[in-house]
Amino acid sequence: xxxxxxxxxxxxxxxxxxxxxxxxxxxxxxxxxxxxxxxxxxxxxxxxxxxxxxxxxxxxxxxxxxxxxxxxxxxxxxxxxxxxxxxxxxxxxxxxxxxxxxxxxxxxxxxxxxxxxxxxxxxxxxxxxxxxxxxxxxxxxxxxxxxxxxxxxxxxxxxxxxxxxxxxxxxxxxxxxxxxxxxxxxxxxxxxxxxxxxxxxxxxxxxxxxxxxxxxxxxxxxxxxxxxxxxxxxxxxxxxxxxxxxxxxxxxxxxxxxxxxxxxxxxxxxxxxxxxxxxxxxxxxxxxxxxxxxxxxxxxxxxxxxxxxxxxxxxxxxxxxxxxxxxxxxxxxxxxxxxxxxxxxxxxxxx
Length: 351
Ligand code: HEM
Ligand SMILES: Nc1nc2c(c(=O)[nH]1)N[C@H]1C(S)=C(S)[C@@H](COP(=O)(O)O)O[C@H]1N2
Ligand SMILES: [Mo]
Fold this sequence. Notes:
Layout: H1 2-17, H2 32-58, H3 71-78, H4 80-98, H5 109-141, H6 156-175, E1 222-227, E2 233-236, H7 237-242, E3 246-253, E4 259-268, H8 269-276, E5 284-288, E6 297-300, H9 302-306, E7 311-316, E8 319-320, E9 330-332, E10 345-350
Parallel strand pairs: 1-10
Antiparallel strand pairs: 1-2, 3-4, 4-7, 5-6, 5-10, 7-8, 7-9
The structure holds protoporphyrin IX containing FE, the ligand Nc1nc2c(c(=O)[nH]1)N[C@H]1C(S)=C(S)[C@@H](COP(=O)(O)O)O[C@H]1N2 and molybdenum atom.
């Protein structure tokens, strides 16, 4: 169950970051990605004690002879190798990713995690399929033995309860990175939703992104809207403030599972697109002043680009953005991963 949730929510996250040309992802419900990615990290973490406990319980059976009694049994046993190896790999890469410990990863995290997910879920399906075949045969022969262990050890029910509790404690200790009321008990949460510039956490700071404060100064900074437009635009900060402003309460939902909701104010992207004479079915690429780094650009399909609440925000909670939150201008759009909410935006390219 937790594996299926993990796989489906992970796949959705992958689709957001690797859009398919024939599948236009919706921009609503606004908080949907926040929910699914939160579920991903929580169900992933909850799976760790569940899987380890299950392995511990079936461990003695792994050494029973004959090694393979028939095809279904061989499939059941052999599928355990990719299932266990894949799961441990997913847990390890997932956990070090949310803990910001990237050093042991020689390859790109998402690619490895993504392919391990397919292998693991494939092995899980094969394992359950084979198990069903075996169970059916077993059930037709005799009634299963459901009695308590004779030695007086932990009963099956007690064991399952203990695993469930361990899982629950882990979940509560991490959920505070997105559910604010739990922040004090969340000792394992890598981020606190109320700590950072303007009272909100940041991902990459302006210093880390090598943003030169001189380039974003009033009078120097300009936003350009270009590409497939009838009329290219070049707008100063003063120009941007003369355009009717729009306000929206939207979440930043990091792929790493932490999130916060805030009130943003700025120019609706669709207003700029209309002024530049862009077509309604055009998709858009947003570019940051950040010179390098994987998250310096963000793609928007035509639905996302024209959502009324997709903003180039100038303000966060009624104040100009802090430099670390993307001053002077940042993208904020509904139902999208945090990695795509580009900071220090200086260019809109219509495709
Ligand atoms: C402790 C457990 C886990 C944690 C903490 C975790 C964490 C993460 C994180 C942070 C991402 C976002 C990566 C990014 O876009 O930069 C992610 C993506 C993903 N996860 Fe997990 N994960 C865990 C377990 C699993 C499991 C068990 C599966 C599959 C059964 C899975 C499948 C995926 C998939 C398919 C993606 C999308 C990768 C992509 O964007 O290409 N994860 N996970
Ligand atoms: N230019 C740029 N924008 C960026 C990033 C980045 O590294 N560079 N990080 C993104 C990530 S991963 C997240 S979660 C959000 C976090 O926004 P915040 O730092 O304002 O909280 O910003 C996004 N915007
Ligand atoms: Mo993020």
